[in-house]
Write a structure and sequence with these properties.
Elements lengths: L19 H6 L7 E3 L5 E3 L1 H11 L10 H37 L5 H24 L10 H15 L9 H11 L27
Antiparallel strand pairs: 1-2
Helix pairs in contact: 3-4, 3-5, 4-6
Length: 203
C-alpha cells in the first residue's frame, strides 16, 4: 500500500488467539484483512495485493504484461510457499512465533535445517538480481515485497548469513532503503529484541 501511495489505518492482530472480532471478519482466522471505507472486507495477503492492483493500477506491482505478471506470481509463490516452508517456519517461526504466541522454546533441529536451507535461496536471489534489476524484472514488484517480508522476519531473528551472499545483500539493502519498507523496521515482537543491525540501512 505504501508503494501505491495508499493510506491505511493499521491494526495489530494476535491472530493465534482466534478472537471473535477477527473470525467475524475472516472465518479462516488469518491475517491480513483489509476493510474498505465502504465496509467491503477483503481477506488474505495475496488476494488483497491482487485486489489493490485492480483498484489502484496507477503503480503496477505485478508487471506490465502477461509474461511479467506470470513471473512475479511465480516468485511470490516461491517465497510464500517454498521459502516459508524451508526457511521462515524453521527460523522465524521457531525463534519468534513460538516464543510470542505459544511461550515455547525453539526446536534446535528445525533451526539447523533452516540455517542450511537458506543458503540455496539466497544464491537464487543473487542469481536473479545478477541478471535483472529486481527479482522479477527491471521494476520493483510484489515478488520483491514477498521475498523482503520473509527475509525481514528471518533477519529480525539474526539468522540471515548476509556476508556469504553479497549480491543478495545488495538487493536487500536497496529494498530496505525504500521509504515504503522503512516503517516495517521499527516494528518489534513483544519481548523479543531484533538483531543488532536489523534496522540499519547500511549493514
Amino acid at each position: 500500500m505504501n508503494e501505491k501511495h495508499l493510506v491505511a489505518d493499521e491494526r495489530e492482530e494476535p491472530y493465534w488467539l482466534r478472537r471473535g472480532e477477527l473470525l467475524s471478519l475472516n472465518p479462516a482466522g488469518d491475517v491480513p484483512v483489509l476493510i474498505e471505507e465502504s465496509g467491503e472486507i477483503i481477506c488474505g495477503g495475496r488476494v488483497i495485493c491482487e485486489y489493490l492492483e485492480e483498484e489502484s493500477p496507477e503503480v503496477s506491482l505485478l508487471g506490465e504484461n502477461a509474461k511479467a505478471r506470470a513471473e512475479t506470481r511465480r516468485l511470490i509463490d516461491w517465497f510464500d510457499s517454498k521459502f516459508d516452508a524451508e526457511v521462515t517456519q524453521f527460523l522465524a517461526g521457531e525463534k519468534l512465533f513460538k516464543r510470542v504466541a505459544l511461550g515455547e522454546a525453539p526446536d534446535s533441529r528445525a533451526m539447523r535445517a533452516g540455517r542450511e536451507n537458506i543458503h540455496a535461496h539466497l544464491e537464487y536471489v543473487a542469481w536473479l538480481t545478477d541478471r535483472r534489476s529486481w527479482l522479477a524484472g527491471e521494476a520493483l514488484s510484489l515478488a520483491d515485497l514477498a521475498a523482503g517480508a520473509h527475509l525481514s522476519l528471518v533477519d529480525y531473528a539474526g539468522d540471515v548469513p548476509w556476508s556469504d551472499h553479497p549480491l543478495a545483500k545488495e538487493w536487500y539493502v536497496r529494498l530496505k532503503s525504500r521509504p515504503s519498507f522503512r516503517p516495517l523496521l521499527a516494528e518489534v515482537f513483544p519481548g523479543v529484541a531484533p538483531a543488532a543491525v536489523y534496522a540499519d540501512l547500511d549493514f
